[in-house]
Structure formats: C-alpha cells, structure tokens
Amino acid sequence: MRVLSGNILDVPRGYICHVVNLGGAFGAGLAGQIRRRWPAAYLGYKARFRAQPLGSYWTVEVERGLHVAHLAAMEKPGAHVDYVALQEALTHLREDVIDGAGEPSALTGTVLLPPLHIPWGMGCGIGKGDWKVVQRILNLVAPEAIVWRRS
C-alpha cells in the first residue's frame, strides 16, 4: 500500500473506491464530492443500491479509463462500516480488475493493472470505522492500492 498526498478526485485513471450504504444516502463526505463532480456516479448508485447485498460492489465509468467503485459496506446511512463486507467488496473488485486487465505486455511480460485509489480513512468518518483495521484489510486484499491523503 502506497500513500500519496493530493486530491483523490484528480487521479487520471483507475478506480476511485469509496464505501457506500444500502439505504440510499449519497450526499456527505467523499460521496457528496463525487456526486457533485460526476453526477453519473450518483445515478449509477441510485439505480442499483437496492438490489445489492453487503459485500458487493459496482462501478461507474465517469471519464475514459476512470471509474468510481461503490463498495457496499454499510447497511444504512450512519451505520458502522461492516469490515467483512468491505473486505469482500474489495476482494471481488480486485479480482475483477485483474481478470479484465488484458494480456501481458510484449515488452515486459507484465500486465499493468488499473490502480485502485483509496481515500485515507475510508469507512472511518461517517462509517465510524477504525483506520488501523481498514489498513490491515487493504494490506491483505489490495497491497498495491494507492491511498490518498488530502494535502
């Protein structure tokens, strides 16, 4: 896990991950910033949140090569983040990103994965989570993730 300073909303490509609830609220914290910047991400959330179980994820492409990944890890607005659901959603997202990454480079033989961008403290504001627990999940499931701290 790499930590960088800056605004997560300014990344050019990859998956901006954030925790969402399954109660329909999408206006505070990072979700509110995403909603204002990319209304399509909000519309994608509203279209699917009722049909998603905890531990699932879904993505919305907001710019070419840039996706917002909604990680369903809270049952309702203001509920505590569900760590098991967060780990499941991240695991499935990472597996699907790797599976869809394409063929290895002819030059290097490696596959360049689109980065998973994680906000510092994901699930620990409104979701009342413990950042140390979330960091352990990230190190276990997505050690190559980039964590963004606001500068």
Highlighted features:
151 residues, single chain, 4 helices, alpha/beta, globular, 6-stranded mixed β-sheet
Task: Give a structural overview.
With about 150 residues, this protein is of the alpha/beta class. The chain has one domain: Leucine Aminopeptidase, subunit E, domain 1, CATH 3.40.220.10. Helices cover about 30% and strands about 25% of the residues. The chain has four helices and six strands; from the N terminus they run E-E-H-H-E-E-H-E-H-E. It has a six-stranded mixed beta sheet with strand order 1-6-5-2-4-3, with helices on both faces. Strand 3 and strand 4 form a beta hairpin. Helix 1 crosses helix 2. The longest helix has 17 residues. The model has no long low-confidence stretch (mean pLDDT about 90).
Topology:
Blueprint: E1 2-5, E2 14-21, H1 29-37, H2 39-48, E3 57-63, E4 66-74, H3 83-99, E5 116-119, H4 131-141, E6 146-149
Order of helices and strands: EEHHEEHEHE
| Class by alpha and beta content | alpha/beta
Helix content: 25-40%
Global outline: globular
CATH topology: Leucine Aminopeptidase, subunit E, domain 1
Tell me about the largest β-sheet: 6 strands, mixed
Question: How would you concisely characterize the structure shown here?
Answer:
It is globular, with a radius of gyration of 15 Å.
